[in-house]
Amino acid sequence: MVSKRSGLVLAIGFNLFIALSEASLLARQRSQQELDSKYNWWQHEVFYQIYPRSFMDSNGDGIGDLKGVTSKLQHFVETGITAVWLSPIFQSPMKDFGYDISDYSKIQPEYGTFEDFDELIANATAAGIKVILDFVPNHSSDEHEWFIKSAARESGYEDFYVWEDGKVLENGTRVPPNNWRSVFTGSAWEWHEGRQQYYLRQFTAGQPDLNYRNPAVLQAMDEVMIYWLNKGVAGFRIDAINYVYENTQLLDEPLSETTDDPNSYDYLDHIYTKNLPEVNELLQHWRVMLDDYSKNNDGPQRIMMTEGYADVNTVMNYYEDENGTQGVQFPFNFDFISSLNNNSDARDFVYIIERWLIYMPHGHAPNWVMGNHDNPRVASRYGVQTVDSMNMLLMTLPGIAITYYGEELGMVDYRDISFADTVDQPACDVGIANYKWMSRDPERTPMQWNNDTNAGFSTASKTWVPVNPNYLQLNAEAQKQAPRSHLKVYQQLIKLRQLEVLQNGAFIAQAYNREVELKGKRSILTIINVSNSQQQIDVSDFAESSKHLVLLVVGVDSQYKVGQRLKPSEIVLAPYEGLVTRLSLREK
Ligand code: NOJ
Q1: To which H or E segment does residue 228 belong?
Q2: How far apart are CA 483 and CA 33, in angstroms?
């Protein structure tokens, strides 16, 4: 199928080209100091997200734990991963599986002890793996001592949270102070019988929002960060950063007009509860604190990466604001989750990839998040056939790659979990008729290590969420044994990232059949067919005087082999196939 657009003939279904050339190193050349590994160790890193509850259970209670993670460090060593970030491990009643923290300085007993944590850090450090922890500043648990004291109006804690009287209607009914909505549906205000006031909770009722307008709160949270830095972590993933401040006049938010459901979070345009400019000042404050810490202590630069689903301008300000004041090392780029999907064509990919690079302030590292514990997995979002090509894309884009556990194997969501087995609170809240698509349990199923009971994750009779029954075929052990596997492709891709050209080369992304000016002696070219039909393409323009493309990485089901040479003018790609190639000037 072809169509005319702007005078160009485009193949529909389109193929995506990513090319990096050594010839134009200038554009992205970095100074020696910038390349200093102590300071910029993270700029080309692959960060692997561990969801501790689901990674490895060492004591047979059906729940993953720290000792379990330590026991699996070899998986990272073999795969080539040198940095991991852990979803929360702190004391919690687990209403939001650790994102509701009842003591920021304690470890949840089912995850282990401080000795287990120290052991993890020591063994990870010895294996060359840095550990990043999740930091959840927006809210604590309603079981946190601060909240209990605040609810009791104990001196010093009265304003630790956002409390309001609400309004009394003419008929005497008390209602919340305004129309603000919880991300997980319904009012964002929860009545507290004890204090006889509403408290703000933008997530579940068990997650009251801390009040950052109170300097004592900021100080308490600074101390939490320092506490964990002293325990040897390399930095923090910062949760829900864009929710931290709200408008102090409590103004009603305007209707978004995108849905008729008044309970839905999308019902309102969140101009008073999200992305307030104060967020930048907070991040800058923590940046100074972490930089000082790094200067005054041995070890790598301590870093921050933020979670904030927001428009591109807002997110870019987290790198640095308009005045050049530094914020976090990188705000997560969720474009592969939020802006692209299995209907996107090559132009969409190119456009969205370039958008990040164009908007990003000069001198920063781009990053690409392929999946996480809040969204369907890659194989379920884009299709099982795309697993290798999406990893090729992730790994050959410039900058930082972020992988969710199990994505190196192509794990798939287990959507068929019964309502009785569902534990994700927002899904339980919407009831049996609607839980299935709301639930985040399907992407949190245990890591599939082998074909033993519970995929080798646990010896328990029941795991905290069911194991995906496809583990019998899809597991790490089987993929290690197989001559070709997603895991092996992933390993090859990580190795490839050591190439100077992939770290510092100039980058260009093109949809097929657009004119490309890319000159260079030795370039890496990633070619991805994002369509569901076979495509024959000619990349001789792209390959310039190269006689051949040498295949560096091919997918599991590819007709090609690594090392094989292809003529740039005659490349046939199966549906969703990806190839990572090197341009070669030699005749053979
Ligand atoms: C974002 C976390 O990723 C998600 O899992 C959690 O439910 C919310 N923040 C609330 O903490």
Answers
A1: helix 215-230
A2: 42
Q: Closest ligand 1 atom to the C-alpha of 426? A: 7
Q: At what angle do helices 278-296 and 312-319 cross, to 10 degrees?
A: 30
Q: Which two tokens stand for residue 177?
A: 């102070």
- What is the share, in percent, of the chain residues with pLDDT greater than 70? 90
Q: Could you tell me if 237 and 305 are in contact, meaning their C-beta atoms sit under 8 angstroms apart?
A: yes
pLDDT tens-digit map of 363-405: 999 999 999 999 999 999 999 999 999 999 999 999 999 999 9
The span from the CA of 250 to the CA of 213, in Å, is 14
Of 76, 106, 74, 67, nearest to 89 by C-alpha is 106
Question: Where does the pLDDT of residue 477 fall: very low under 50, low under 70, confident under 90, or very high at 90 and above?
Answer: very high
Q: Let me know if 421 is a catalytic residue.
A: no
Which domains occur in the chain, in start order? Answer: 136-209+246-270 (3.90.400.10), 506-584 (2.60.40.1180)
Q: Is the CB of 424 under 6 A from ligand 1?
A: no
Instruction: Dump pLDDT digits (tens) for 96-117.
Output: 999 999 999 999 999 999 999 9
Cβ–Cβ < 8 Å for 542, 568: yes
Pairing outcome for strands 535-537 and 548-554? unpaired
Q: Is the CB of 203 under 6 A from ligand 1?
A: yes
Chain Cα centroid distance, residue 373: 8
First-to-last alpha carbon distance for the chain, in angstroms, is 34
Query: Phi then psi for 565, rounded to 5 degrees?
Result: -105, 135
pLDDT digits (tens, 9 = 90+) for 228-257: 999 999 999 999 999 999 999 999 999 999
Res 139 pLDDT > 50: yes
Q: For residue 276, which of 230, 313, 245 has the smallest C-alpha distance?
A: 245
Query: Would the CB of 393 count as within 6 Å of ligand 1?
Result: no
Q: How many CB atoms lie within 10 A of CB 140?
A: 29
Please give the Cα distance from 164 to 199 (Å, whole number). 6
Q: What is the pTM of this model?
A: 0.93
370 CA to middle of ligand 1, Å?
Answer: 17
Catalytic residue among 116, 142, 209, 239: 239
What SS3 class is residue 290? helix
Tokens representing residue 542 in the block: 């792209």
Mean pLDDT over 60-87 rounds to 98
Cα of 369 from ligand 1 centre, angstroms? 16
pLDDT for 259 beyond 70: yes
Q: Above 90 in pLDDT, residue 322?
A: no
Q: Is 180 helix (H, G, I), strand (E, B) or coil?
A: coil
Cα–Cα distance for residue pair 40/234, rounded to 1 Å: 12
CA atoms within 13 A on the CB side of 382: 31
Angle value at C-alpha 379, between 375 and 384, nearest 5 degrees = 160
Rounded Cα gap, residues 528 and 511, in angstroms: 10
Among protein residues, the one with the nearest Cα to ligand 1's atom 9 is: 240
Active-site residue, 307 included: yes
96 lines ligand 1 (CB under 6 A): yes
Per the model's pLDDT, the better-predicted residue between 4 and 451 turns out to be: 451
How far is the C-alpha of 296 from the C-alpha of 522, rounded, in Å? 42
Encoded amino acid at 77, one letter: V
